[in-house]
Amino acid sequence: MFKLLSIVCLAAFVVAEIKEEENVLVLGTDNFEEALSLYPDILVEFYAPWCGHCKSLAPEYAKAATKLQEEGSKLKLAKVDATVESELAQKYGVRGYPTLKFFHDGKDSEYNGPRQAEGIVSWLKKKTGFPATKLADVEAAQKFVADREVAVIGFFESEESDEAKAFLDAVRAFDDIEFGFATDKAVAGEYKASGNKVILLKKFDEGRADFEGDFAKDKLVEFVKGNSLPLLIEFNQQSAQRIFSGELKNHLLIFMSKEAENFNKVNESTRELAKGYKNKLLFVFVNTDVEENSRITEFFGLQKEDFPAVRLISLADQLVKYKPDVAELNPEKLKVFVDDYLAGKLKPHLNTQDVPADWDKAPVKVLVGKNFDEVALDKTKDVLVEFYAPWCGHCKKLVPIYDELAEKLADRKDIVIAKMDSTANELEHTKIESFPTIKLYKKGDNQVVDYNGERTLEGMLKFIESGGEVGKAAPEDEEEEDLEKEDADEKPVKDEL
Ligand SMILES: *[C@@H]1O[C@H](CO)[C@@H](O)[C@H](O)[C@H]1NC(C)=O
């Protein structure tokens, strides 16, 4: 009795300890765990005080918290200043601001829901209420299935069973798939389901997949994820988000024309192959006849004559590309390629053009992947390199200034002014984040200094003459905000992937 009492008192004490601002809990390392144990369902925003998106979310967030509070809901909203609570931010993998995480019984998942008060509230209610559609009779079930590309139904003898609970937990892990729930015998009979059973019905590929195995949340989530996407997904504006922001970070892309004589054969054999790699690798088809797809083909450095082509990408930390030795789309060879990749046996593929015959004729030298190190890392010279994209407006504006700079310094034997088309050439040691990027590779020790001054003749001259001192990198903490400015430099296509 005494023990129970002290726990109750302790809980009351802890509640009083957590500060609230407009009904939003203010959390840090010292009270985070306590908040999680007091509130089984809690949405946490990791923010930075200077971040623009965070500022616009704040009033909506407070409104949602207040609404829930007024309704007497158990749902809670909280915030963490990630610039102060860096330990917490790191623990939960916060990379950008704001990052929202939903905690259910202490377990976190990414929140990608709406950013408006109403939307936040209804998202939370769906997540914490009964998350599936109850299918009372055969007619309701048939309609539920007919209306959806993908429908998952759980059949259970009782709503209270452990199996049903595991299923409902799995359901809460999804935002974009709808789930049905049936306890009616006639509904189960209609779908040939006996006992506790989960099936996935889809309007493509094999049409139906039956869950086999133990009813555990993770197993069920894996089953739904592995079976709800087409075996071979066509890349387009709608699917891009699902493909590239999904959890599967390994993608095999096939670039070919849908008009190609062997398209149906390739489609068939690739889908067959893909069956063996569910939850390991996504198979993506890029139709090279579609004009909009030229950005993605360009990103891979592919030209018309290269099609059909295959590339494999890993999006884990940064984007890494792999290229099979074989050009043909032979399923056996593709399988070997994929298996080698998964076994970690492949070396990344870097795009490069051939060195142009006249690369050093003009004042601005032309670098490509193949000659970059030889020229830029020449220890006897200061080498200034502009990394550009042919489509980038800021780069075009820079051309006359950069040419003038090179002409001015043409007599200097110890200085090289160079440029590289970064859409067609990649370097293992340098990843370009925006266009144009200007770097100085210093003589002597090959130290690399970024130029962040104004892109004027005087500015760049001073930068070179000072050995990279005048106009070098701006302080890091200003960078993130820069990306939100309208005049921010243009980003390579990989950021859109
Ligand atoms: C591949 O074939 C299937 C079955 O005919 C079809 O549903 C699917 O749309 C095809 N895939 C593509 C990318 O066209």
TrEMBL record:
Subcellular location: Endoplasmic reticulum lumen
Disulfide bonds: C51-C54, C392-C395
Annotated spans, Disordered: 468-497
Segment forming the signal sequence: 1-16
The entry's keywords: Disulfide bond, Endoplasmic reticulum, Isomerase, Redox-active center, Repeat, Signal
GO biological process, one term: protein folding
Cross-referenced Gene3D superfamilies: Glutaredoxin
Basic and acidic residues: bias regions: 488-497
Top-level division of the source organism's lineage: Eukaryota
Pfam families to which the protein is assigned, alphabetical: Thioredoxin, Thioredoxin_6
Cellular component GO terms held in the UniProt record: endoplasmic reticulum lumen
EC number: 5.3.4.1
GO molecular function, one term: protein disulfide isomerase activity
Chain intervals with Acidic residues compositional bias: 476-487
Domain Thioredoxin stretches: 4-129, 341-469
Protein name (record): Protein disulfide-isomerase
Organism: Hypsibius exemplaris (Freshwater tardigrade)
